[in-house]
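Audit log entry. Action: structure prediction of a protein-small molecule complex. Ligand: magnesium ion. The ligand was supplied as SMILES and no pocket hint was given, so placement is left entirely to the predictor. Protonation state taken as written. Sequence taken verbatim from the request; no trimming, no tag removal. Recorded inputs:
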Amino acid sequence: MSAGFAGTCLGDLLDDFVQTFTNEAAGAPPWETLARAAQLPPDGVWRVWLLMAGRGAGKTRAGAEWTHARMQAGCKRFALVAPTAADARDVMIEGDSGLLAVADRVGERLLYEPSKRKVTWPNGGMALAFSADEPERLRGPQFEYAWCDEIGSWRYPERAWSNLLFGLRLGVDPRLIATTTPRPTALVRDLVKQPTTILTRGTTYENMANLAPAYRDVVARYEGTRLGRQELMGELLTDTPGALWTYELIERARVKDEDAPEYARVVVAIDPAVSTNEESNETGIIVAGKDHAQHGYVLADRSGRYTPHEWATIALNSFDEFEADAIVIETNQGGDMAVQTIHSVRPGAPVKRVHASRNKITRAEPVSSLYEQNKIHHVGGFPRLEDQLTTYVVGMTSPDRLDALVWAMTDLLVTGKKPIGAFDLGGLIQENEWAAVG
Ligand SMILES: Nc1ncnc2c1ncn2[C@@H]1O[C@H](COP(=O)(O)OP(=O)(O)OP(=O)(O)O)[C@@H](O)[C@H]1O
Ligand SMILES: [Mg+2]
């Protein structure tokens, strides 16, 4: 049973455990001698230390080491904030570079109580873990310091951040470290500009000696690409030249959960991966709705690397959860198989097939035009989908999440064989490009 954040029950208590690491690492070199300069707290006066670096560059390790050092220096109340509750547990606390490992290296025993989402140091100081998915939980508690991991991937960045800052009011010098891959979300861009922020940066290459050899293959896939500049070099890229979407475009039309309207129609769109070996693409699964004013809303991104049975199950669960009207599948590449897969898990599930020819014009342009017209809104943030949207340039192979989004919006907002009347795409859409065949 997962630690969860939902109060204590017997099952959770049974899951609790005490870290009883022995002092195997007595004599381990101090972090100050191992760390690169960008991983050590900057000099000067700052309230936010923003460590923005490439994948595997040592961000989490730096966050955990700073947290541990603050606790050893006598901090009583510390906040840990991760994109999800699972990330807080699996990465910030129990991960290879997390708090328990960092303490273990220097032979220190921490008490971790998952059900209380709490880590306690031998001197009595404690760190409480939070998920940025649940920003309201950050309302109320008070802290001296905080560590926020992967702020570029938070689902509700504004609320989580502002609630955390309101609570950062104990001690004489409340401060926080934010460690992240540099996604240009509004929060990250804003933090970079703040005079109270100090920025340190690093690249994946600088930490290569500490990464598994297999990681080089992962790195090779991104090398020389624009996404590689973000993911490996740790550059904050605000606009991809020629991209159909920009962060401004998405940010401008973003809405909060509580401002979401009633939906006239909801669909779950799937762009199935072509094969399921390790190198295969992800299966894009996007849940979207439209309101009575013909605006589209992205409600969930459930994409990932799945077997056919897994994606069919996830799509059907999403269908139930959002009380959707249909599952939308693109039929160009083995679409009939995809329909059969859905029906093997749930016979008779309402499936609608869309077909788009891949020649002449990109399928994504009409949908990006709807974003430009402020007619498509994201309910909260979808970092990985938004990465794909903002780095996609016409002519590239379109990525899976983007494709699933395009199928969803095509079904919702491009009716029948023509786009809905309110906008004219100047002949960009041809009849057979968007024909719904199911
Ligand atoms: N200065 C260092 N000396 C030795 N090992 C290090 C150093 N910095 C990081 N590491 C190790 O490198 C590995 C990757 O570090 P870490 O998990 O902190 O990277 P990350 O940037 O958070 O990665 P990701 O992008 O996957 O979140 C870990 O095993 C970590 O302990
Ligand atoms: Mg990390």
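Audit: result stored. The chain is about 30% helix and 15% strand. The pocket of magnesium ion (ligand 2) is lined by residues 59-60, 91 (CB under 6 Å).
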